[in-house]
């Protein structure tokens, strides 16, 4: 099963989600990330945070949702602007959910305040991914309405 984490710029929150999901996911589950208007580069602070957490990012890059190697089964938007966009038609009837998280790359302040913002975003995303992966995935894969309801509920969780 392929899960797409979508954010407009595909440089920070969607990258963190992709990397964390791929580290924790069971066999047969894979995350990708993309953006509707990709920045073309990954956020250096997000890469640093993932490295500090021991989460590999080799091979990840900022990409457009037009350049996905596979069609996702589930699309998780992690920023407000991506939530309102219409997914490309080629994605078909994918299961969609929204897990809005404040963008830590937009935080201005001291280095400590910026670090806190990145840690908070990471904590929220990791908690939601862990809750996702704790679901009875085999049975929910057969019940799209219930699966979507569970994913929507998870989108309300804080770290």
TrEMBL record:
The keyword Disulfide bond does not apply. Residues 1-135 form the Phosphotyrosine protein phosphatase I domain. GO terms for biological process: response to arsenic-containing substance. InterPro entries: Ptyr_pPase, Ptyr_pPase_sf. The keyword Lipid metabolism does not apply. Keywords: Arsenical resistance. SUPFAM superfamilies: Phosphotyrosine protein phosphatases I. PANTHER family: ARSENATE REDUCTASE (PTHR43428:SF1). This is Arsenate reductase ArsC. It comes from Telluria aromaticivorans.
């Amino acid at each position: 099963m392929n899960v797409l984490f979508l954010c407009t710029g595909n440089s920070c929150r969607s990258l963190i989600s992709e990397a964390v999901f791929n580290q924790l996911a069971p066999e047969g589950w894979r995350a990708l990330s993309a953006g509707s208007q990709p920045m073309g580069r990954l956020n250096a602070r997000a890469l640093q945070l993932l490295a500090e957490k021991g989460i590999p990012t080799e091979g990840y890059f900022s990409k457009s949702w037009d350049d996905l190697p596979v069609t996702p089964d589930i699309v998780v938007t992690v920023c407000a602007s991506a939530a309102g966009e219409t997914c490309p038609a080629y994605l078909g009837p994918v299961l969609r959910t929204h897990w809005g998280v404040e963008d830590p790359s937009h935080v201005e302040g001291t280095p400590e305040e910026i670090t806190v913002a990145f840690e908070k975003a990471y904590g929220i995303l990791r908690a939601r991914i862990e809750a996702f992966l704790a679901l009875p995935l085999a049975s929910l894969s057969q019940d799209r309405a219930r699966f979507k309801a569970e994913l929507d509920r998870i989108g309300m969780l804080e770290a």
